[in-house]
Acyl-CoA hydrolase
Amino acid sequence: MEEKKVLMKDTKAVKTARVFPQDTNNHGTLFGGKLIAYIDDIASISAQKLCRSPLVTASIDSVDFLRPIKLGDAVTLEAMVTWTGKTSMEVLVKVTSEHLLTGESHMAATSFLTFVALDEQGRPKPVPQVVPETEEEKWLNETGKQRAEFRKKRRIQSKELIEFLQARLDSGRPGIS
Ligand SMILES: CC(C)(COP(=O)(O)OP(=O)(O)OC[C@H]1O[C@@H](n2cnc3c(N)ncnc32)[C@H](O)[C@@H]1OP(=O)(O)O)[C@@H](O)C(=O)NCCC(=O)NCCS
């Protein structure tokens, strides 16, 4: 049976929101946790456009906050599936801010996230392959395998840390001091 494929451009999702006072920290800029919630949300929509099945966030790579996003600015998030494994999907989210009175616009943050598609039993399920077309899409796709390898190594370290902390918890010595 031929493997199902989806064009990268068909996984694009975009969201724009205004930064309101309740979204800001005590510096008057967009609260980092709020931005991460926006990033996870838009990225999951993009991944689901590819797999068309239930999914979970497996990991969020480092979120690089490049510039503060100010109260009253418009924040725009663009997400796209950049690489697919067997059951996992890598999504790139680009965040830009716009000062609505001047029209000045800046790249504010970027992040890669990984989602895993699930079957009815909640087990990882194969996903269609994403197909890049433009030069930028091809570059993002070709470099995806390397990023996935890096995450695999990081996941092993993360599991070791969790096992260590769990053992301390089980022995009645919680905490990391
Ligand atoms: C993500 C999850 C489904 C993976 O299940 P698993 O039984 O460990 O599955 P596997 O080890 O077979 O991994 C399945 C795929 O996920 C990828 N994967 C698993 N953990 C990952 C991680 N932390 N980062 C990136 N990719 C990951 C694997 O590389 C594999 O990809 P591939 O099929 O494309 O090669 C499982 O760990 C889980 O349910 N985690 C909780 C997710 C959750 O609750 N998210 C909400 C936010 S807290």
Remarks:
- The first strand starts at residue 5 and ends at 7.
- The mean pLDDT is 95.
